[in-house]
Amino acid sequence: MTEPELPPEVVELGDRVFALLDEGHHEEAEPGLREVLGSAERLLGPDDPVTIALLDDLGGTLYQLGRLPEAEAAHREALARYHRAAGVDHPASLHCAHNLGTALVMRGERQEGVALLEDTLERRRRVLGEHDDTATTAGTLGAVLFSLGESARGLELLEGAYSWFLADLGRQHPKTMDVCGNLVAAVYESGERGRAREMLARLLADYAEVLGEGHPTTVETRGRLARMGV
After folding, report:
1. Coil, helix or strand for 34?
2. Is residue 174, in this structure, part of any structural domain at all?
């Protein structure tokens, strides 16, 4: 029996939507993403991997737009479908669980969000071992725990995630630079001011080279460094 497929015009719309998302145009991409998701629901079914991934992507888009209740709802539904279709420990389920945990923390539901991120980290370590996805959850959880006052464990997780990305992806990879930004804040607050300044100066140079001198992230990082007295 032939598996159902999305028609070419829906695939083309999806390509345009994800090009917009890659460029950070989340508001412009949202209507098209909902249209592609609706087509997938009808033609592939609610528990098809493509449909669930699109629903999780919609949650991420809504998160970027600051519409956190809607983002949480989309991630919750996607996670329930992944659990039903693929199981709790499937990498796609764990990816979605990470997204939901992050959305919950940002929405202020910290206890549930931290618990989900802790569970996701444990499962990713068991299922994937040392892996970029494992380091991603470790870095996110580390930043959250540090901000909540669990300084020692938060710093440990951030250091581990940064070391992994640095070795596996290189200093100028977006994941490495993202974790570095959070690690700098933790190192600075822990009292290692000199080390934090050196790390942030390197990060600024990397952002300037990769993103450009006028990019908002470069400008914001330059401001952070100035506030540190450099």
Report:
1. helix
2. yes
